[in-house]
């Protein structure tokens, strides 16, 4: 941990009690002037401290900001999120994470932003992410996998998000193949995986997650107003983003470790539990055209299996899926 992380952890562990400047200086091995400067930096980021002579400092209020130090304090992962880049505003966390990957950033590197101005969705769409409301993040993975198995990590991420939502805020969500998380039929989260690889090996796989946390109905763009939702809308109250993000990382690492140890089968079983697509009549739209049928499930690679009217089964690798009924 750096000084800022240690300082923030000290105040959070103090539970609102005062910590003397002398005690902070002794434990962190820095001068009182350096402590004061760090506290002033936190104040500029929205933290509220009370300073009393001879008593020291105490943390009165911590804002819902996703700075690296806030995420690191209390994060229990071994790899994911151990290196964090935070931006108040950025064009796209995916773009930045790809840059870092090319520069040799380690697996688990996390890019998170309070606002994206050019957030990425699938098939070149824009993912809307207003300031201060949602989780916009991209995670760098470097799995030793065959290229054809990479789509499985999109499905794995979807399972991690759904299970986190249930545990963190008691919300039952479902997965619409391949990358949408739905609550009561409306989209709350999108997942985008982007691959950089050669024919024989993966250089990097960037997993992007856009989760609507505190967006209000009036803040959704008109084109998604009737099909999008947020956790705040569904719960009727705002949620803090940092502990939710921490729990997503924890569950994602658990599933990733399970996947690397035992393959896709145990993840596939959990994915099927939450899938809204299976057994439904669907229309599949790809760049090559459209087809209709019944979604029978996914194969061992994570490919969607659609049974046509003539009884044949079509494998769908990437598409938009419209569910009927």
From TrEMBL:
Top EC class for this record: ligase
InterPro entries, per the entry: aa-tRNA-synth_II/BPL/LPL, ArsR-like_HTH, Bifunct_BirA, Biotin_CoA_COase_ligase, BPL_C, BPL_LPL_catalytic, HTH_11, Transcriptional_repressor_C
BPL/LPL catalytic domain segment(s): 69-260
Record-listed biotin binding positions: 116, 187
Superkingdom, natural source: Bacteria
Pfam families: BPL_C, BPL_LplA_LipB, HTH_11
Gene Ontology biological process: protein lipoylation; regulation of DNA-templated transcription
Keywords: ATP-binding, Biotin, DNA-binding, Ligase, Nucleotide-binding, Repressor, Transcription, Transcription regulation
Enzyme Commission number: 6.3.4.15
Recorded GO CC terms: cytoplasm
UniProt xrefs under PROSITE patterns: BPL_LPL_CATALYTIC
Regions recorded as binding DNA: 21-40
GO MF assignments: ATP binding; biotin--[biotin carboxyl-carrier protein] ligase activity; DNA binding; transferase activity
Catalytic reaction list: biotin + L-lysyl-[protein] + ATP = N(6)-biotinyl-L-lysyl-[protein] + AMP + diphosphate + H(+)
UniProt-listed SUPFAM superfamilies: C-terminal domain of transcriptional repressors, Class II aaRS and biotin synthetases, Winged helix' DNA-binding domain
Family in the record: Belongs to the biotin--protein ligase family.
HAMAP family: Bifunct_BirA (MF_00978)
Described function: Acts both as a biotin--[acetyl-CoA-carboxylase] ligase and a repressor.
Protein known as: Bifunctional ligase/repressor BirA
